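Sanity check

After download, print the first record. It should look like this:
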Amino acid sequence: MATHEHKELPQKSYRIILQQEINAGLAELKRPARGLFLSSLSAGLDIGFSLLLMATMLTAVEGIFSKPVIHILLSLMYSIGFILVILGRSELFTEHTALAVLPVLNRKASIAELSRIWILVFTGNITGATIFSFLVSWIGPALGIIEPWALSEIAHGLLDHAWWIIFISGVIAGWLMGELAWLLGAGRDTISQVFFVTLVTSAIGFLGLHHSIAGTVEMLCGVITSNNLGFIDFLRFLLPATTGNAFGGVIFVALIKYGHAIQTSEKS
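Expected structure tokens:
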């Protein structure tokens, strides 16, 4: 009777993961502009499902569960949109703040190419998020699954901070999203990728960190449905959050991971 031994696959080295990330970033940098924009538009739309589920959950359980339980439930709902985006291979700005920088550090791409993908992806993400915001603000109350106060409460949770707090919060969120891109490169199958995405993005939601694209849907829904929020409030969120996301991804992931992997390779 034949026996089957389970052989554990060897863990990927830093150098292998780095090369995978460089190749992936380079492939995205070389994509046609129309394809990049449409993919990023899709990501901006898909990530809106996080807010749709969060607002629906908040409406359904408010006054039934305690605040800590509601907070945990909303954090889990927050991860859904990211799962749709990342496993669907759409282009998300906060992934590219780290991923697209690696080929530039490796001198296989230029600053101009990096600027091109950042602009295209960010514009597509914001456009998609804006469209979804209007959809949620209408269909949620129309279906009776979302109360307008829930959208306003979620938006105020992002905005009730000084600009420098939003910036630092954005740095940490961008740092975590960059780490997620690295973890996905280390993952071997879809199950592990779903686990990593859920773990990292639900942590961002649980900590209340500022993610520029997911937060755009949250803020715009609040602006649309609330008399207490305006477009200036949206910009007061978007500018420091976006800057912070980019800073966190570039500095704490791209530069440090790249330097560490290169140094490890040179010593081996």
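If your output differs, re-run the checksum step. Summary of this record's structure: The chain has twelve helices and no strands.
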